[in-house]
Every structure is written in structure tokens, then in C-alpha cells.
Amino acid sequence: MQTAAAPVDRYEETIYHEKLGPDGPLVVIENFNLWYGQAQALYDVTLNLQKGLVTALIGPSGCGKSTLLRSLNRMNDLIDGLRVAGGVRFDGQDIFARDLDVIGLRKRMGMVFQKPNPFPMSIAENVTYPLKVDGVRDRSLLEAIMEKALRGAALWDEVKDRLKESALGLSGGQQQRLCIARAIAADPDVLLMDEPCSALDPVATAKIEELMEELSGRYTIVIVTHNMQQAARVSHNTAFMYLGRLIEYGETLKIFTTPKGDRTKEYVTGRFG
Ligand SMILES: Nc1ncnc2c1ncn2[C@@H]1O[C@H](COP(=O)(O)OP(=O)(O)O)[C@@H](O)[C@H]1O
Ligand SMILES: [Mg+2]
Q: What confidence tens digit (pLDDT) does each residue in 119-172 have?
């Protein structure tokens, strides 16, 4: 029902007070809409991803979290009938510009998926493969980058004596850290993580969460998670989505302790989802 007060309530509910990073936003999403064929999956999503901070995307299944995440590095491009409106700027550049180098964009925005997906190669080759594809041939350079990436992903000590063994022999948690190492070997600015711990046990999950804390600052991280405790633990800012809309976005502590909207309140306290 439209009353005089309604617009004000709505405004109060969606007012955004995200925690600001020292360098401001790296990704600016403005009135972003997305359709899969006739079905609209995202409606007027507007939010800034602060450089060097961790942003969590939460909300019930099907609300558009993965769709939004995959839009950021244009992983959705291959889907037939996909259409977008509104904008996403990354480091000031329109990511949907005609002349944009999509491969270059994906290099700057690494992705880690729900299920660890190491290549059927050795541990070392998993990390160096993308560099080799890129034409890096210098052995000592490849080795240096590999070690740095494995150290960065908190995996080096566990694998340094078995670098030539198959990556498929690693535990799930190790495989996921290997995928993170592979992503950071390309020296990205952003890490997009879609429920990276949902296939892992609590110990492996704790390691990834610890790692995310170490990686923030150097990288701008976006994590989709179903796990409220995880969002509360790892992120600086949290965006709550519902039915394709961004309902509330703000400093994580505030979203979890004093959410503005009823819907957000119900979700973060576990009353629906
Ligand atoms: N490739 C696709 N083709 C058509 N519809 C899709 C596709 N991927 C997701 N959707 C639809 O878009 C909506 C949002 O999905 P998704 O982004 O996967 O949500 P979430 O990650 O929050 O669970 C859902 O209704 C889903 O069915
Ligand atoms: Mg999803």
C-alpha cells in the first residue's frame, strides 16, 4: 500500500553504510539488472566493493548471489539469452564496454568455486599452468611465482616435498587452497569466491577463513556464503539479497546486530533461508 510514509521507510531500509576501505571502492555496481532470457534475476543492484576489504553476499538460495558474482568478471557471457542493463565499473572502467579485454578482466578478478576444481596435473603444474598458457617460459620465474602463490595460499609447507605429485591426491581443503594459489598466481586484484567452503569440513573451513583474513588488504575479496557465522567472521561488509534485489548493505557487524529491514533481521537470525 502506498502511503506518504512508505518511501521514507523504504529509504531507511536500504540506506547503505558500508565500511570504507582506505582506498575507496574498487568495483562500483550501479543499477545493475540482469535477465536470463525472459526471467529477470537481478533488479537495480547498486553497491560499492571497497578495495582491500572482504564483502559477503548472503541471502536465500536463488536470490542472485552467484549471478551477481559471475557478472563481475563476465563469467555469465557464455549463457544464451543473457542480457544486462546498468553498469559495473572496475577500477573506473566499464566492464561491459565493447572494447573491453574480457580475458584481461578475468585475470584481474580470479575466481574460486564451490567445489575445488584442480586440474588433473601435478600440484606445481596447477599453479603454473595459467602462467604457461600466458606464455611465461622462464623456469626460475615460474618456480618463484609458484612458491609465492603456494605460500600466499598457506599451502607451501604441506606440499613443498610433493610438488610433482598429482593435485588430485590432496585433501578437499588442500585442493581448495591450491585453487586459491592458482588464482593468486595470476596476480589478480579481486578474488571472487562462490561458497568456497561448502564442500569442506570444519577444520579445512577454518583454514580458508584464516587465509581470507591474511589475503584481505592485498586483495579485494567477495565471498558468497550460506553460512551466517562465516559471513560474520570473515567479512567487513555484508550485502543481503532477496529475490534478485539488494535489500541491505552495510558494515557486517551492523547487518548482524542491528539490521534495518525486517527481512534482513529474519534472515540473519535464521528465521528463513
Ligand atoms: N544459467 C542460468 N539460466 C537461467 N536461469 C538461471 C541461470 N543461473 C541462475 N538462474 C536463475 O537465476 C536466479 C538466481 O540464481 P543464482 O544466482 O544461482 O542464485 P544464488 O546463487 O543466490 O542461489 C534463480 O532463479 C536461478 O534459477
Ligand atoms: Mg549460488
A: 999 999 999 999 999 899 999 999 999 999 999 999 999 999 999 999 999 999
pTM (2 decimals)?
0.92
State which ligand 1 atom lies nearest to the alpha carbon of 76.
Answer: 1
Distance 135 CA to ligand 2 centre (A): 33
Task: Give the closest residue (by CA) to ligand 1 atom 26.
Answer: 62
Lining ligand 1 with CB less than 6 A are 36, 41, 59, 61-67, 79
pLDDT of residue 272: 73
Helices 123-133, 172-185: inter-axial angle, 10-degree rounding: 30
d(CA 225, CA 238): 10
C-alpha dihedral sign at 239, 72, 122, 144: negative
244 CA closest ligand 1 atom index: 14
User: Whose C-alpha lies nearest to ligand 1, atom 20?
Assistant: 62
pLDDT, one tens digit per residue, over 189-243 is: 999 999 999 989 999 999 999 999 999 999 999 999 999 999 999 999 999 999 9
Percent of the chain having pLDDT more than 90?
A: 87
- Residues 65-111 pLDDT 10s: 999 999 999 999 889 999 999 999 999 999 999 999 999 999 999 99
Give 6 Cα–ligand 2 centroid separation in angstroms: 32
60 vs 203: CA distance, rounded Å: 25
From residue 112, how far is each of 40, 194, 212, 221, 263 by CA, in Å? 25, 6, 12, 11, 29
Ligand with the closest atom to the CA of 241: 1
| Architecture of domain 17-117+189-268 in this structure | 3-Layer(aba) Sandwich (3.40)
CA 40–ligand 1 middle distance (angstroms): 10
